[in-house]
């Protein structure tokens, strides 16, 4: 349970940011102090894709007082693989859907938007969850939203901006992972892969290494998200790639009910 003094600190909303990650399977949120970088609250809840989303969201908001506090900033991360990174030189805002038609199934009725990665001079074109956004407009009035892979790529490129060597970042979820390969802050490759077995996982990694002519004996791969040193995905990567590291979430928290793995599994959320 939350200590009373900790709860009082959290309800003092000055400098506090509410970050919500939404998908078809989960609704996860945390509260972050933007001065101290402390995560002061964290919770993850399942979403039933076969039931009414609006009814589930109403229940979630009714049962979670932390969602009713006024925050300095509210950020919503849309978590899906309906996105594509486009260099500014090839970007046409009038034809957003065309950038997704070759790597995912889109419809004429879909709503498309984009995030601007100014430093990298590119856009991330994606399909947001309109139903979530509509609900949040009613709840918050104003909020910012972006695609979760925008945050992922920005994190990876920032990590490599002063690195001469190519570095591979793999963000692992339950049934898929995202691969970001960069050098000196420049994006060399981004892709999202569905996986069912450790063999799927290493296949796509080695294939990407081969495509960019990277040496598995030397090129570092950074793993984060749903992965630990004793699980099968880590073990199979370590068998084929010599320079492997698991990124620590390195997050400060106050005293509240959470498991370290929950925070590690939501690496992008807590670093947003």
Model description:
The chain is an alpha/beta fold and 272 residues long. It has a domain at 152-246: Nucleotidyltransferase, domain 5 (2-Layer Sandwich). The protein is built from eight helices and 14 strands. Strands 8-4-1-2-3-14 form a six-stranded mixed sheet. Helix 5 (198-211) runs parallel beside helix 6. The protein starts with a helix and ends with a helix. Mean pLDDT is 90; it is low at 1-8.
Summarize the topology:
Blueprint: H1 4-11, E1 16-22, E2 26-33, E3 38-46, H2 53-63, E4 73-78, E5 83-87, E6 113-117, E7 122-126, H3 130-140, E8 144-147, H4 148-160, E9 167-172, E10 176-183, E11 186-194, H5 198-211, E12 220-225, H6 232-240, E13 244-246, E14 252-253, H7 260-265, H8 267-270
Helix pairs in contact: 5-6
List keywords for this structure.
272 residues; alpha/beta; Nucleotidyltransferase, domain 5; 6-stranded mixed β-sheet; 5-stranded mixed β-sheet; 8 helices; 31% strand; disordered N terminus
């Amino acid at each position: 349970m939350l200590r009373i003094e900790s709860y009082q600190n959290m309800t003092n909303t000055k400098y506090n940011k509410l970050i919500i990650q939404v998908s078809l399977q989960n609704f996860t949120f945390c509260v972050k102090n933007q001065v101290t970088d402390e995560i002061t609250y964290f919770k993850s809840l399942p979403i039933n894709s076969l039931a009414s989303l609006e009814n589930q969201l109403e229940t979630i908001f009714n049962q979670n007082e932390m969602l009713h506090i006024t925050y300095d900033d509210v950020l919503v991360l849309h978590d899906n693989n309906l996105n594509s990174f486009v260099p500014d030189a090839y970007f046409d805002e009038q034809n957003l859907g065309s950038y997704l038609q070759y790597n995912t199934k889109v419809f004429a009725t879909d709503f498309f938007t984009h995030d601007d990665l100014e430093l990298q001079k590119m856009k991330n074109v994606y399909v947001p969850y309109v139903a979530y956004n509509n609900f949040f407009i009613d709840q918050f009035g104003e909020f910012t939203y972006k695609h979760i892979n925008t945050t992922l790529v920005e994190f990876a490129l920032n990590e490599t901006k002063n690195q001469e060597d190519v570095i591979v970042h793999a963000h692992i979820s339950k049934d898929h992972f995202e691969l970001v390969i960069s050098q000196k802050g420049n994006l060399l490759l981004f892709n999202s892969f569905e996986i069912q077995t450790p063999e799927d996982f290493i296949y796509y990694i080695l294939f990407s290494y081969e495509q960019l002519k990277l040496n598995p004996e030397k090129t570092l791969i950074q793993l984060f998200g749903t992965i630990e040193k004793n699980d099968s995905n880590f073990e199979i990567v370590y068998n084929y790639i010599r320079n492997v590291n698991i990124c620590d979430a390195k997050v400060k928290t106050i005293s509240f009910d959470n498991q370290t793995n929950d925070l590690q599994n939501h690496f992008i959320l807590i670093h947003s």
